[in-house]
Design a protein that fits this description.
8 helices, transmembrane, mainly alpha
Length: 187
């Protein structure tokens, strides 16, 4: 399964119309290297809209042709997903826990294949973000401060959460319902 994903990652990276999300980061890194403006109105519908500090993170990819950079990014995404799977899987069940089902990882991969397809097709950063958040959580559980903080910061600088007015209202309403009395009647 892993080999199939790796071949797909490289093949998709070779198509000139694929990896459009990654190419936004790549373009920003190239502009950063040139010392020019990374935010341009001329970029149309796919502008770089992320924190400027994220552009240098993609500088190593500027050493490669664009198609090879997309293919390498896709391989990095697959590696991130493999690490997430590895870090969230226990070797042995804990006391009182059922033995893990051996087909679960394969079936989970098949169930999530549409999401993996988008990840590779567009060259998205979601798999890397997921790994960074997981590393942040695991480090914080172990009492570490700096490494989890850096991983968390990079994750949210790569793709800040988008909040619509509807989700803001729903979040505020939920918070109000959970708030203790006396200012609010029970929900």
């Amino acid at each position: 399964m892993l080999l199939v994903l790796a071949v797909a990652a490289v093949a998709v990276g070779q198509h000139p119309r694929r990896g459009v999300d990654f190419r936004v980061y790549l373009m920003a890194a190239e502009r950063f290297l040139e010392g020019t403006d990374i935010y341009r109105l001329s970029d149309g519908t796919m502008p770089f809209k992320y924190a400027p500090i994220t552009a240098p993170l993609f500088l190593p990819f500027t050493l490669l042709p664009a198609r090879a950079a997309v293919a390498l990014w896709n391989l990095c995404s697959i590696a991130a997903l493999v690490l997430v799977a590895r870090l969230t899987t226990r070797a042995l069940p804990g006391k009182g826990e059922a033995t893990p089902w051996t087909w679960a990882p394969v079936l989970t991969t098949l169930a999530l294949l549409p999401a993996f397809t988008y990840e590779l097709f567009y060259g998205q950063v979601d798999a890397v973000i997921l790994l960074l958040i997981l590393l942040s959580t695991r480090g914080a559980e172990r009492g570490q401060v700096w490494r989890p903080g850096v991983a968390f910061a990079i994750a949210f600088l790569l793709k800040p959460p988008r909040r619509s007015s509807d989700s803001s209202f729903c979040g505020a309403a939920t918070g109000a319902c959970w708030a203790p009395p006396p200012w609010w009647a029970p929900c």
